[in-house]
Design brief:
This protein is an alpha/beta fold and about 350 residues long. It has helices at about 15-25, 30-40, 55, 90-105, 165-170, 175, 190-210, 215-235, 240-255, 260-275, 275-300, 305-320, 325-335, 335-345, and strands at about 50, 70-75, 75-85, 110, 115-120, 120-125, 135-145, 150-160.
Length: about 350
């Protein structure tokens, strides 16, 4: 192979990890509840109410130094979730304590002239990368002026300590999409492990979509994030040229980047062609929506009425060909009984 084909070329993108995770979770209340359950070993019902309290926190610049990355409140209980790119920054126990106080003051306090009631959130710190010194938990030892002492333990999650299987089993894929960062800086010795983890991670995302654990569009976005992470890790790696080329070839050509939008389109078309009963009804409804939209778009150039009429006629012919009852066709298309009978008499039907 020529040398110019060896080096990987990719755009270096700065990922806002906390924003991506928050935006991912905000797409689905059930996914958020599964994530919190897996994160903290809770057992929140999947139909519980989920509120996002972040916007209120970000309303003033003076609050930005005392708020966590995001505060979901689920079934009345507030959580303070902090995502750390690594554990090198000092005083993390103190910072997370400030975030808990900030969340309590902003979202969990009521007061009168003589009394204040404060509810603290359940904090948790997620380390996307970790070292031997990364804490397994944080301890808050609090001494009050009257002699009372309280020790609180704050759980932490070290992504590098989890396997892809465990990430998927605990419904932690919203942070698992960054799992491959734990291989930085990648060396020849870990190249095969990196490749296998990438392939397994993509498969688990696909499995989660198939099981309706995460929405299809969220799975699509997760894949894109994994791809950017792969390219970023490879660009920062210490691989030899030979290994770098092999990894580039494998990652970009061997691992399939599933286009879920295309899969959905194919499923819809199959539903139009061969679906029966409820499946046919869903396929017809979606097919009509697409057909009418296309007819309207084309009608802007050639006449809206004609474009829409042609689409409806074509749909009607397909319905007749699939032995759909005329009464149902009238309901789907808006055509009259006489208009449909005329189509039945043509040679094209």
């Amino acid at each position: 192979m020529e040398n110019q084909n060896i080096d990987i070329k990719s755009k270096q993108e700065e990922l806002s990890y906390d924003r991506i995770v928050k935006n991912t979770l905000a797409e689905s209340d059930e996914m958020t509840i599964r994530f919190i359950n897996g994160l903290l070993n809770d057992n929140i019902p999947l139909d519980a109410t989920v509120e996002w309290l972040d916007k209120e926190s970000r309303g003033s610049n003076k609050n930005t130094s005392i708020v966590a990355d995001f505060y979901p409140r689920i079934a009345g209980k507030m959580y303070a979730i902090e995502i750390e790119q690594d554990s090198r920054s000092g005083e993390i126990a103190l910072r997370v304590f400030k975030y808990a106080i900030g969340g309590a003051m902003l979202h969990g306090s009521t007061s009168t002239k003589s009394e204040i009631n404060i509810t603290f959130p359940q904090p948790c710190v997620i380390f996307l990368k970790s070292t031997k010194s990364t804490p397994k938990e944080l301890l808050w030892n609090i001494d009050f002026f009257d002699g009372q002492k309280i020790t609180l333990k704050v759980p932490t999650i070290q992504l590098s300590k989890l396997s892809v299987k465990e990430i998927a089993k605990r419904n932690l894929l919203p942070i698992g999409q960054f799992y491959l960062r734990t291989f930085e800086k990648l060396t020849d010795k870990k190249a095969n492990d990196f490749y296998n983890a990438a392939e397994e991670l993509l498969q688990e995302i696909k499995n989660a979509v198939n099981k309706n654990l995460i929405p299809i569009d969220v799975g699509n976005h997760m894949q894109d994030t994994v791809k950017v992470t792969i390219e970023s890790v490879l660009a920062k790696s210490k691989l030899t040229k030979e290994t770098r080329f092999e990894m580039t070839t494998n990652i970009k050509e061997t691992i399939t980047w599933t286009n879920y939008k295309e899969l959905f389109k194919e499923a819809r078309e199959q539903g139009m062609a061969v679906g029966k009963a409820e499946g046919m009804a869903v396929g017809i409804a979606e097919g009509m929506a697409v057909g009418i939209a296309e007819g309207k778009a084309e009608g802007k150039a050639e006449g809206k009425a004609e474009g829409k009429a042609e689409v409806i006629i074509e749909i009607t012919r397909r319905l007749l060909a699939n032995n759909i009852p005329i009464d149902d066709i009238i309901e789907y298309t808006g055509l009259t009984h006489e208009e449909i009978e005329k189509l039945c008499d043509t040679e094209e039907v």
